[in-house]
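Why does residue order matter? Because the sequence determines the fold. Keep that principle in mind as you read this record.
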Amino acid sequence: MQTIDYETIFQRAPVGMCVTQNRIIQACNDAVAKMFGYERSALIGRSLLVMYPTPDEFERTGARIVPIMNAKGSYSDDRIMKRANQELFWCHVNGHSLIPNDPHAAGIWTFEDLSAKRPVSAELTPREREIAALLVEGKTSKLIARQIGLSPRTVEMHRAKLMRKFSAATSSELVHRLVGVSN
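Structure:
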């Protein structure tokens, strides 16, 4: 029986993958390096912050995932990420905590580039990007407000700005435009 070479499997996986400790990349495959526009060696030892549009989004996302990962051991969402050349793109992110009740201590993460299906088509503020990602998940303004620590009124204000930026008449139309589906 032939032995399985897990390092080769990790490196050749068809999806971007990385292993982190305290949000620092310990290992990553070629697919994630290519997706984000880095050499693999340039990502090892760096903070996941390099993949986020802003430090604030990095911090808020990190705080938001903790209770979810503590409860489920895993987390996934679609969010706007940043390539080395500063290009923003939609990305599906999945993470699994390797240490129960300490999600940032060690984890394995996968990344899928959604830009072919869902282009970033408007200039959005960091808060608008965060709210847009939660709207795409089907969350209500009340749920979004509770999850990110804002008032429902403030979330509604951001939703209204998003609707204007995407020329959407309804919330449903906004979500369709955010995910790249034409009406």
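The domain at 6-113 is CATH 3.30.450.20 (Beta-Lactamase).
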